[in-house]
Design brief:
four-stranded antiparallel beta sheet, alpha+beta, four-stranded mixed beta sheet, 11 helices, 10 strands, globular
């Protein structure tokens, strides 16, 4: 899917119908069981949502970041957890798309498109503040294999994915140039998972630690050349920011839609509360934030898809604004519902909880502000 408006509308419409007809009736089930049911994952596979970024020759839909954003936004309107699974699938697939050989792509992408294999992105560690110095996972060459030792945290789709994009040091003395990317398949010797993390929101999204204890993988699992992993990871993260922003936009839009419906039906003093100026102004402000965030998100996605250079600033701005807006909009939606907004029978409290993590995962918004300011200072020649 490359730039054609009719194709974009087709995939958006498909995601919207799937969200309303297939996912929405099962949101409570997802919250209570704390996982997306396997039959829903299979449905995502049939709709092509698990292979959005794969080229057609590998069984994908030949999509791009914009198409991923469209699907994630529509599904996030009704279920943050389901959108997180699809978003994480895209992020976990990107390192293979960026660094994989033709034979690796042929093998792994067939598993994704034909068997609905899930992927996961395993970069973060407990002391990892976006610097290569803090990656402590080591991959040591042993004959025709690698032995991986270390631990990754906050891995979305951890323990349920079949393919993991993993980043480890192959030459600890070389900093970022000593980091390499690998794919590790479920069932590899020495691969273990921690307990599922209990979370404030996104209850149906599975997040675990990954533990590598002399994890044995063949040398053919190296993605690209040794030392190219850090660049692969940073490009992946940059490309994923608009999709996280799209998730935030979807959650916020879902909350606004519900709040408008509620305020149009809730009566006070013999009139709907939507007739009150204070309520109307809140609704207008919420819509303004959402539309601005949506514009930024798709502007960033478009620039990445068009391979425009130096998209770090716009992608960071889009993620910051969209996720902060989602937190504000969902909180206001709870306020508009009054006491009912705080009750689990109504969806806005779930949306508020789900919105919070969008400000944190990927990269925390505070870290992204540093990236934005760094780009600006470089533009003005103040720093190199």
């Amino acid at each position: 899917m490359k730039g054609n408006d009719s194709e974009k509308e087709m995939i958006r419409s498909l995601a919207e119908k799937t969200a309303k007809k297939v996912i929405q009736p099962r949101v409570r089930e997802i919250e209570e069981t704390k996982e997306v049911p396997k039959d829903l994952i299979e449905e995502f596979g049939r709709q092509g949502f698990l292979s959005l970024l794969l080229p057609e020759e590998y069984g994908g839909t030949n999509g791009n970041i914009t198409s991923l954003c469209l699907v994630v936004e529509e599904i996030a309107k009704v279920c943050g957890s389901s959108s997180m699974l699809i978003l994480s699938q895209g992020i976990g697939t990107l390192p293979i798309l960026l660094g994989g050989s033709e034979s690796q792509k042929e093998t792994l992408f067939a598993k994704i498109s034909e068997k609905n294999s899930l992927t996961a992105f395993a970069l973060r560690e407990f002391e990892f503040p976006s610097m290569p110095l803090y990656i402590n996972t080591i991959a040591k060459k042993e004959g025709k294999n690698y032995l991986i030792n270390g631990k990754k945290c906050f891995v979305t789709n951890g323990s349920i994915a079949q393919i993991y994009s993993v980043f480890a040091k192959t030459d600890p003395e070389r900093g970022e140039e000593g980091i390499s990317a690998f794919f590790v398949e479920d069932g590899a010797r020495g691969l273990r998972f921690g307990e599922r993390d209990e979370k404030l929101g996104m209850k149906g999204s599975v997040i675990t630690d990954i533990i590598f204890e002399n994890c044995l993988i063949p040398q053919e699992n190296l993605l690209g050349e040794e030392g190219s992993g850090w660049k692969n990871a940073m490009v992946t993260i940059n490309m994923s920011r608009p999709a996280i922003g799209a998730q935030a936009v979807g959650i916020a839009q879902g909350a606004l839609d519900y709040a408008i419906k509620y305020t149009g039906e809730r009566m006070q003093f013999n009139q709907p509360i939507s007739s009150f100026q204070a309520v109307r102004f809140m609704i207008a402000d919420m819509a303004t934030q959402i539309e601005t965030a949506r514009t930024l998100v798709y502007q960033a996605a478009s620039q990445i898809d068009e391979k425009i250079e130096n998209t770090e600033k716009i992608s960071a701005i889009a993620k910051i604004f969209a996720t902060n807006s989602a937190m504000k909009v969902t909180t206001d939606a709870v306020q508009l519902l009054g006491g009912y907004g705080y009750i689990k029978d109504y969806p806005v409290e779930r949306m508020m909880r789900d919105a919070k993590v969008t400000q944190i995962f990927g990269e925390a918004n505070q870290s992204l502000r540093f990236i934005v300011s760094n780009c600006l200072l470089k533009d003005y020649g103040i720093i190199d």
